[in-house]
Write a structure and sequence with these properties.
Blueprint lengths: L2 E7 L5 H7 L7 E6 L2 E6 L4 H7 L4 E5 L8 H11 L4 E4 L5 H9 L3 E4 L13 H27 L1 E2 L5 E3 L2 E2 L2 H14 L2 E2 L4 E4 L19 E6 L2 E2 L8 E6 L5 H20 L6 H14 L5 E3 L2 E3 L6 E3 L6 E5 L12 E4 L2 E4 L3 E4 L2 E5 L5 E3 L10
Parallel strand pairs: 1-5, 3-4, 5-6
Antiparallel strand pairs: 1-2, 2-3, 7-8, 8-9, 10-13, 11-12, 12-14, 15-16, 17-18, 19-22, 20-21, 22-23
Length: about 375
Amino acid sequence: MALGRLIIDSGERSANLRYASGFSTPDDFIWFEAGGVRGVVMSSLEYNRAKSFASPGVAVFSDDEFGGPNRLDVIKNIAKQWYLDGFIVPENFPLLLADKIRGCGLTVQAEEKNFFPEREFKTESEVEKITRSLRAAEAGCRRAFEVLREADISSEKTLLWNGVPLTSELLRFEIDSTMMKHGMLATGTICAGGFQGSQPHNTGSGVLYADMPIVMDIFPRSAENGYWGDLTRTVVKGKPSSVVKKAYEAVLEARETAKKLIAPGANPKDIHNAAVRVLEKYGFYTGKNESGDYGFFHGLGHGVGLDIHEAPRLSYRVTEPLSKGIVVTVEPGLYYPEWGGIRLEDIVYLDNSGKARCLTEIEDFLIV
């Protein structure tokens, strides 16, 4: 059976499509691979731009060349021209369209694994793009440090900045607007203080308080090329408690220990468990009580690229050895509802020589 490969999506939504075509659009378009040809089929609105920006080796066709704007007609004519019996598609391919294609007598088969497994292994050009996004995240984080240093502490222990309460929303705005000046799209920046920081994906809301940890997880996406950066720092304005100081030291040591273990052939499960052992050495164990999960209850890290979370994973569930060319976060954390959370995140590139290079440059400190 002769099967081509097919993606129909927008580059804004689909990292696979952006990877395959080399450019992005707000509207859906067709990418296909058949008979040794990789091509995109574009409307007249986007045809000329695609001719300018498509990756080398990607042929650009107008939809008129395949029977007009109706997508089903275009797909049938692609199959006819290359004598295909059907297509392999990504797992999130539109169900209704798949049913219509099958109704034309063509096979539609979802890819069970990564549609482009080679995306896991970054080129130097991709690493540069990730690094630029990371630098923007660092600029946003440094802006947050400035705001927190300028903030005053009220008699109620709330933070005040320029005479108004400093909230998670206001701090997030300062971070995000800084990153926008660097050409980034800010998406879901976390500024979670106190109890909110004990919930890893709580973006944070309301007034921030002195003496409590503030978790800032910053992950901008480049408006130009779609590559992400990722960074987390946790700081305290004021005087942290002894348990917060101890937790910070534990998380910092766990992160640095894990970074040193990243190497070709290393087992992600072993790296994750090494970080756990450091945390437990300091007396921080993971469990569950009436308030929910506590301790370190998420994976140690993940790949970064055209998706913010992609292969490979650093987790106690993953045993597939690491390979050269990967870019991964290393982000252990501790979360306790009684006092909040601590998370510290760097990005590491395992280069083609087998050396692990930390791409993150921003400093580490607890008290701002």
